[in-house]
């Protein structure tokens, strides 16, 4: 893959730039401290991913922070843990506390000097704005589930992305490279719409898929890398 042939890099954020699994796990601690002593990190993340996906399908227009509150309440019920409703709202407001991966800000700064950078994320604008302060870069466009009215992997989100990039930045589909961690949320629908992709496999070397459900079909990806730091190395090599 010749990275210099693209004009726009589009990013998934949570799982790719922001360490959402650590953020989710940390934010679940108040609930688990009440009655989830036997629930480990991988089990918790897998259950979260399953319930979140179901909730996004049921309520595609629900704002993400509110949806997280609903998911937290469903997790409490699933694990038979009784807590006050305030704890559900606290979890829903936790996105600003989720940490960035250590290589995200530096990599984005490098790429910003060479490409237009765009976000396609399953969150609301307020939650993303808080995360963006950790990333330290001004994106050229930000498209969220809140604006689109549906959650990835809905094909509508990627159709929206391509149409708006042509309208807003004047780029064609072949000039877009989508960079994401989730095969389920991003790579399957991106492949269907004909976008080139790079898989940033943040779970490289780990068993299972964590908070991200496994897709029913395995998509083709242009390149599989373990980090954004590796992506920068590949770009430097292709530019030499």
Distance between the terminal alpha carbons, to the nearest Å? Answer: 14 Å
Examine the coordinates and then state which fold CATH places here, giving the name of the CATH topology of the largest domain: Rossmann fold
CATH class designation of the largest domain:
Alpha Beta
- Helical fraction equals 40-55%
Computed Rg: 18 Å
The name of the CATH superfamily of the largest domain reads HAD superfamily/HAD-like
Q: Overall 3D geometry?
A: globular
How many DSSP-defined strands? 6
The number of domains is 2
Low-pLDDT residue spans: none
Per CATH, which architecture of the largest domain? 3-Layer(aba) Sandwich
Mean of all residue-level pLDDT scores:
96
Largest sheet: 6 strands, parallel
> Helix-strand pattern, N to C?
EHHHHHHEHEHHEHEEH
Strand order of the largest sheet: 3-2-1-4-5-6
Structure description:
The protein is α/β, with parallel strands linked by helices. It has 2 domains: 3-19 and 99-239, Rossmann fold (3-Layer(aba) Sandwich); 21-97, Orthogonal Bundle (DNA polymerase, domain 1). The chain has 11 helices and 6 strands. The chain has helices at residues 20-27, 29-35, 41-58, 64-78, 85-92, 104-112, 125-135, 145-148, 155-169, 183-193, 228-239; strands at residues 8-11, 116-121, 141-144, 176-180, 196-200, 224-225. α7 (125-135) links the parallel β2 and β3. α3 crosses α4. It is globular, with a radius of gyration of 18 Å. The relative contact order is 0.19. The mean pLDDT is 96.
């Amino acid at each position: 893959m010749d990275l210099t042939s693209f004009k726009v890099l589009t990013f998934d954020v949570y799982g790719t730039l922001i360490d959402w699994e650590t953020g989710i796990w940390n934010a679940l601690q108040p609930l688990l401290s009440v009655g989830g002593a036997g629930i480990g990190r991988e089990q918790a993340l897998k259950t979260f991913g399953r319930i979140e996906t179901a909730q996004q399908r049921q309520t595609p227009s629900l704002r993400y922070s509110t949806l997280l509150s609903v998911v937290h309440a469903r997790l409490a019920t699933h694990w038979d843990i009784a807590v006050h409703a305030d704890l559900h709202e606290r979890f829903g407001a936790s996105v600003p506390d989720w940490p960035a991966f250590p290589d995200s800000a530096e990599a984005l700064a490098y790429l910003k000097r060479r490409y237009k950078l765009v976000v396609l994320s399953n969150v609301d604008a307020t939650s993303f704005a808080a995360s963006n302060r950790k990333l330290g870069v001004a994106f050229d466009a930000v498209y969220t589930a809140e604006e689109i009215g549906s959650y990835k992997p809905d094909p509508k989100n990627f159709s929206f992305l391509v149409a708006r990039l042509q309208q807003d930045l004047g780029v064609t589909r072949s000039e877009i490279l989508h960079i994401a961690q989730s095969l389920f949320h991003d790579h399957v629908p991106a492949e269907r719409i004909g976008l080139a992709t790079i898989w940033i496999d943040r779970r490289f070397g780990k068993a299972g898929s964590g908070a991200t459900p496994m897709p029913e079909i395995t998509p083709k990806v242009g390149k599989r890398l373990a980090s954004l730091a590796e992506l920068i190395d590949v770009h430097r090599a292709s530019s030499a």
